[in-house]
Structure formats: structure tokens, C-alpha cells
Amino acid sequence: MKTIENKTLYVCDFCKKKLFIKSAMEKHEKFCSMNPTNYKACSGCLHLEEIQYEIDLGDDYYNNPITRLVKTFNCKLLNQKMYPTKVERLDLINKYPYQFSDQAPMPKECDKKKFIF
């Protein structure tokens, strides 16, 4: 067991995770799943389904089409593909813009929500 003295410990206000680096804790709190600002209305909604679809990535050297099978969420009620907070946290929107071009972020509020129990 190690004892560290005179070292600042940063604690998340939402999930009580502990880190020694302030910038890391600030980033964690920004995307913490327990943070109320990160709550999405789609969590547990009856109308949300996970789907798979193919995206076209162009052609290879021999002019063969390149496709990739990707997973996303679909709201059956709004007929809209949506991506979760994790996509924003990992900055996947900027890394793979072709994959998220036809999707919207999950909303924070929805009056048509029905829960699965």
C-alpha cells in the first residue's frame, strides 16, 4: 500500500470518481454519465431501437465499392437516426463525419417518450 501526502485529489461532483489531474477531472465531469446535463430523453424509451446500416466509403484501387456496416440508434416515432453522448465524448463526429452526416444528437427532452418496464 502506498501513502501519498500533500497531493491534491479531485473528486467528480456526480459519480465520486477520484483523479489526481485537474484537467482530466474537468473532462470527465463534462461527459460523466451521472451529470444531469448529459441526460438524454431517449434512455429507456420504447421508440428507440438499435439498427445497423451500410455506409459507402467510395471505391478501392480496383474500383470495387467499399462499404462498412455501422450501428446507430433510430427513433421509430420521429423516423430519425440519432447518436448518443458517447459519440460526442470521443469526438467521433469530427473523426468520421461521413458516418454521422445523416444523424442528429439524442434530445435532452421529448414529450412523446414512453418507457420500457
Provide an overview of this structure.
By secondary structure, the protein is of the alpha+beta class. The protein folds into 2 domains: 33 residues; 58 residues, no CATH class. The protein is built from 4 helices and 6 strands. The strands form 2 sheets. The protein has a 4-stranded mixed beta sheet with strand order 3-4-5-6. A two-stranded antiparallel ribbon has the order 1-2. Strand 1 and strand 2 form a beta hairpin. It is flat, with a radius of gyration of 19 Å.
Task: Give me the secondary-structure topology.
Blueprint: E1 10-11, E2 18-19, H1 22-31, E3 48-59, E4 65-75, E5 80-83, H2 85-89, H3 92-95, H4 97-100, E6 104-105
Parallel strand pairs: 5-6
Antiparallel strand pairs: 1-2, 3-4, 4-5
Task: Describe the structure in brief.
The protein has 117 residues and is an alpha+beta fold. The chain contains four helices and six strands. The longest helix is centred in the N-terminal third of the chain and has 10 residues, at 22-31.
Category from helices, strands and their pairing: alpha+beta
Number of strands: 6
Oligomer: single chain
Spatial sequence of strands, sheet with the most strands: 3-4-5-6
Q: How many domain units?
A: 2
Largest sheet, strands/sense/barrel: 4 strands, mixed
Write down the overall geometry.
Answer: flat
